[in-house]
Amino acid sequence: MTQTTAENPARKQRAQLKVRTLRTDRWWLAPALTFTGLLTFLIYGFWAIFDQSYLAEPYIAPFASPCLATACPEGARLFGLAPIGDWYTWPPGLLILGLPGGFRLTCYYYRKSYYRSFWLSPPACSVAEPHGKYTGETRLPLIIQNIHRYFFYFAVIIGLILTYDAVLAFRDKEGNWGHVGLGSIILLVNAILILAYTFGCHSCRHITAGRLNHFSKHPLRYKAWTFVSKLNAKHQQFAWASMFSVMIADLYVRLVAKGIINFPFA
């Protein structure tokens, strides 16, 4: 027989636990690894912004592309142009990284990652968070997360530029096609992973066919939505793979530019 609240006043209260969680597995491992991975990316990105060794023709480091000022080496400029002229003299990474950085910062998967690993909100399922209140993404600064879809458009442009750079990496220093070096392959793989992560975004899935009521009336958009959905199913994997691939590609070009890596097929 079920007791009523009047018969048992204790039913008004939730169970009072003196421990943070009753889980006995290593629940802290996932947020710890995520914290380490994201922190590594942040530290490397900060270093790369101020490192000037970003051009080793025909390779250009992804964190410095596109280079849009006249202060950029001619081989690093997009289409050989410098549209912002002389007024910008800071490292190109400061101007460029904000766009893909903003895209990743507001990405649905990355939100979950750094909410759990940096803010412990919550650190894992069935683990209490240390914060006293929760307001969600309804006020500053987290309400800015809602502009993710606009960062997506810029991320597509950056992804296409990195693909263009990867294609140019198959030329030699004299501009002749047919060069295939380790750097060419690394930049190509990075471009593919960047595009897979970008086009697998939830915003892209919504743009392709998110508001359609009848797929049968829009067969092309339905096919695009199906393709994007397949990428979206691996969005987490592409997020991590592209994050490390862009670091590896960027570091490789800089090591070649510094002369640390120097062999015939570099």
Fill in the keyword field for this structure.
single chain, 266 residues, mainly alpha, 9 helices, 49% helix, membrane, transmembrane helix
Largest β sheet strand count, sense and barrel closure: 2 strands, antiparallel
Low-confidence stretches: none
Quantity of strands, as a count: 2
N-to-C span: 78 Å
Helical stretch count?
Answer: 9
The proportion of residues in beta strands is under 5%
Q: Kindly provide the radius of gyration, computed on alpha-carbon positions and rounded to a whole number of angstroms.
A: 24 Å
Structural class given helices, strands, pairing? Answer: mainly alpha
Order of helices and strands: HEEHHHHHHHH
On the 0 to 100 scale, the average pLDDT is: 86
Helix percent reads 40-55%
Strand order, largest beta sheet: 1-2
Give the number of domains: 1
Tell me, what's the shape?
globular
Organism: Microtetraspora glauca
Protein name: Succinate dehydrogenase
Keywords: Membrane, Transmembrane, Transmembrane helix
Transmembrane segments: 27-50, 87-110, 150-171, 177-199
